[in-house]
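Exercise: predict the fold of this chain.
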Amino acid sequence: MYQVRNVTDEILWIGASDRRLALFENIFPIPRGVSYNSYVLLDEKTVLLDTVDASVSGQFFENLEYALGDRNLDYLVVNHMEPDHCAMIGDIVHRYPEVKVVGNAKTFGMMKQFFGTDFAERAITVKEGDTLETGSHTLHFVMAPMVHWPEAMVTYDAKDKVLFSADGFGSFGALNGNIFADEVDFDRDWLDDARRYYTNIVGKYGASVQALLKKAAGLDIAVICPLHGPIWRENLGYILEKYQKWSTYEAEDKAVVIMYASMYGDTASAADALAGALAERGLKKIAVYDVSNTHVSELISEIFRASHLVFAAPTYNGGIYPVMENLLNDMKALAVQKKTVALMENGTWAAMTAKQMREKLAELKDVTVLDTQITIKSAMLADQKKELDELADAIMETI
């Protein structure tokens, strides 16, 4: 059965959701699934904006055929060449042999890599500022390199003031009939997935996102249509503000997140003791995570969200406990910035972790590591209560 909804009178959502996929890009857990959004413009000419992942191709083509009715497909606009959005290009060309494929020079280079052809006989190559007239609608093409691939672009429909934003403004999570952000409780049910999607996939490319946001500021946008997650047609300032913070690495919340790794529970106990000490000083909404049992994508999302971080880990083989080291490496890969960090280390005979964590954190931009730290020898005992209080006080002073 087809599943199509109007975005505007002449623009239709024809996407589909996958609730069976366990790992997005075979790395990020998606317990709520994911949507693959695709759109059709029905003007004097018909335009398909992006395709979908192969896993939902059956639903996609049923939707497309219903949306087009007895009309042919005139144009396919390819905003992003990642396979979860471009997988059906070959099938589209086969089904609609007269279709013209619209993309930029880098788009067609990647197309040849994926499909063995760049469809030169039907290709329309566009660059920054080019337009496509479809009748009463004019599509404007805006390049968005490294958001988050080098060929990425966005398409703006001047008539309906719709921005087709590629992977920008997307989110993990399947769509459940309600395809618009104003039809769901976004803050409660979608914000965490939107943040986790941005920070782990696009997070490294803050400067590129900033460049795109500046371009978007010059457009009169009423609707944002991303390739994953809900469509924005109301309160656009909400998601734009989030992207402004995330892309400039500003914390959303003045908050403390404690992340610990613990082999036998002693480091975990110390982390909980610090959380309690902070709570006694009036700090609210403290978050504590076991790094071994929390996927790194969730940890990265929380690191972007909070202003203050505490890392607590034992020494392992003379180095940083592996899962904590992996987290610190991921922070570097995703260009985490503008954080205040406190450290706790544990070592039964040679505590080395804090020194090595400091070295890794020194590689990050604008990260302040507090001088005050705690070294535990096997287990935190009552005689370290003063050290615990001193670290809690040092954190509170920076809050």
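Check your answer against the key: The chain has a mean pLDDT of 97.
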